[in-house]
């Protein structure tokens, strides 16, 4: 019983422990095709904001390696007013997001 509990606790901590990833935002709607608005390292649940609106964003890290991750984008700087119509592209170590209904000012990786 003790071994089972220890195993479950270590498995849970491994799942919950996430490596930080790199977040880049761009003025162009093609990820890396325009001027970089901002670059920062983020953890899951961080609200990443910018004073300037961005037209696309890219999350880069092992968790984003050809895997769709839950990310939301917002029209305000506080991750409150969610944007709908976000398109995503998966790649080797990244997810690129573009916004069909306007530009974003903040983002949150929801995992």
UniProtKB/TrEMBL annotation:
Residues 1-17 form the signal peptide. Keywords: Signal. The keyword Signal applies. This is SSCRP protein. It comes from Trichoderma harzianum CBS 226.95.
């Amino acid at each position: 019983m003790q071994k089972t509990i220890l195993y479950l606790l270590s498995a849970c901590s491994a799942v919950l422990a996430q490596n930080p990833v790199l977040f880049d935002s761009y003025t162009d709607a093609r990820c890396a095709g325009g001027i970089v608005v901002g670059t920062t390292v983020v953890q899951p649940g961080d609200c990443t904001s910018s004073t300037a609106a961005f037209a696309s964003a890219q999350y880069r890290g092992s968790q984003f390696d050809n895997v769709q991750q839950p990310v939301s984008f917002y029209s305000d700087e506080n991750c409150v007013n969610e944007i709908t119509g976000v398109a995503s592209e998966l790649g080797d170590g990244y997810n690129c997001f573009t916004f069909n209904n306007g530009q974003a000012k903040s983002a949150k990786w929801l995992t």
